[in-house]
Every structure is written in C-alpha cells, then in structure tokens.
C-alpha cells in the first residue's frame, strides 16, 4: 500500500479544510489508519486514528470535537474533516497505516506513511 495525502492549504482561523489520504493497492481495509502532524521545530504528533472498518475512532485532546476522521474502504481513501481551525493547527499533516494493535497512537506503531500536506491557519 502506498499513501498520498492531499487537501492542505491556507485558511483563516475558524475556517475548515478536509484532508484526503488515497491508498493504492487492494488491502487498504486491513490497515488501521491515522493522521499525524508536525509543526516547525516540533516532533510529529498524533492527531486521530480509525479502525479498519471505520467503526471506532480516537482523537488527540487538542482536536477532539473539532476534527473528524473517516474512511471509505470502497474508495481506498481516508479523510480528516477539520473545523474551527486555530493557528496552532498549522503543520504538515501525514497519513499513516498500521497493522499493529488497536487504534495505535505512537509513530513507531505505523508501518506506512504518506508524503504530507501542509495546513496553514492564519490568525
């Protein structure tokens, strides 16, 4: 499976963006999926994760109630709907795929990574 993230851009605080992560290959549904982000000068951090069927999700406290992760296994695509964006959400957002565990949140638990898409939130 190869991953390609898209949908980033420049948005004003309070605005919305939807990120997509398109996966190649036929076994997308075998992977738990997640979004991470990395701001300049900071470590990559967990944002949200979704189970293989999409039936379970888990969010970082910083994005809970504002972001929604979802997936469409028929389209081999995962999404991140981001609402009420804040300047501190500015980062490169990465999608990742894991065969490990249940709703993992550590970067070391993910086997595959996309190339990242930049989200910039202006104040």
Outline the structure in words:
With 123 residues, the chain is an all-beta fold. It is 0% helix and 48% strand. The chain has no helices and eleven strands. The chain has strands at 3-6, 9-12, 17-23, 32-38, 45-50, 57-59, 67-72, 77-82, 91-98, 112-113, 117-122. Strands 2, 4, 5, 6, 9, 10 and 11 form a seven-stranded mixed β-sheet that branches. The protein is globular, with a radius of gyration of 13 Å. It starts with a strand and ends with a strand.
Strand content: over 45%
The protein's oligomeric status is single chain
User: How is the main sheet built?
Assistant: 7 strands, mixed
Helix/strand class: mainly beta
Average residue-wise pLDDT: 96
Unreliable stretches covering 5 or more consecutive residues: none
Number of strands: 11
Helix content: under 10%
How large is the radius of gyration?
Answer: 13 Å
Distance between the termini: 37 Å
Topology order in helix (H) and strand (E) letters: EEEEEEEEEEE
Shape: globular
Please report the number of helical segments.
0
Strands, helices and their partners?
Layout (H helix, E strand, L loop, with lengths): L2 E4 L2 E4 L4 E7 L8 E7 L6 E6 L6 E3 L7 E6 L4 E6 L8 E8 L13 E2 L3 E6 L1
Parallel strand pairs: 2-11
Antiparallel strand pairs: 1-3, 3-8, 4-5, 4-9, 5-6, 7-8, 9-10, 9-11
């Amino acid at each position: 499976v190869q991953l390609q993230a898209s949908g980033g851009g420049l948005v004003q605080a309070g605005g919305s963006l939807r990120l997509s992560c398109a996966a190649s290959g036929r076994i997308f549904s075998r992977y738990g999926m997640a979004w991470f982000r990395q701001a300049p000068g900071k470590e990559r951090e967990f944002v949200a994760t979704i189970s293989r069927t999409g039936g379970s999700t888990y969010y970082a406290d910083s994005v809970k109630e504002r972001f929604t992760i979802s997936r469409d296994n028929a389209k081999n695509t995962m999404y991140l709907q981001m609402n009420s964006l804040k300047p501190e959400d500015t980062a490169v957002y990465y999608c990742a795929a894991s065969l490990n565990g249940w709703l993992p949140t550590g970067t070391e638990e993910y086997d595959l990574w996309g190339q990242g898409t930049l989200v910039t939130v202006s104040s």
